[in-house]
Amino acid sequence: MICFKQNVSCQGLLEAIQADEREARVLYACLQDWKGQSASVLREQVEAFFMETAHRIREIEEQKNALIQYVHYMKQVDGAS
């Protein structure tokens, strides 16, 4: 049951990050009409945010999958005893 709770909280974290990213993409779309150096700087910062968010989502997914594999392995080991 512990794994299930961890998976739910991990899923909740992923959903929160993805919701933040969706909100940032809506705001980013508004920047398309902006002109000038400050708009370019802000676009670069938002794009960096998107890249970092994608990286962190991949890391969380990888950690979640590793935990699931480990739990399956431990169940097999426990069943073999």
Could you explain the architecture of this structure?
- The protein is an all-alpha fold and about 80 residues long.
- It is built from two helices and no strands.
- About 0% of the residues are buried.
- Shape type: rod-shaped
Give the N-to-C terminal Cα separation: 20 Å
Summarize the main sheet.
Answer: none
Percent of residues in beta strands: under 5%
Mean pLDDT: 84
Classification by helices and strands = mainly alpha
Output the radius of gyration.
Answer: 19 Å
Order of helices and strands: HH
Report the uncertain regions: none
> What is the number of helical segments per DSSP (H or I, 4+ residues)?
2
> What's the total number of strands?
0
Q: What is the helical fraction, as a range of percent?
A: over 70%
Any chance you could write out the topology, listing elements then pairs?
Layout: H1 2-30, H2 37-80
Identify the notable features of this structure and list them briefly:
single chain; 81 residues; mainly alpha; 2 helices; 0% strand
Task: Kindly summarize this structure in a few lines.
The protein has 81 residues and is mainly alpha-helical. The protein is built from two helices and no strands. The longest helix is centred in the C-terminal third of the chain and has 44 residues, at 37-80.
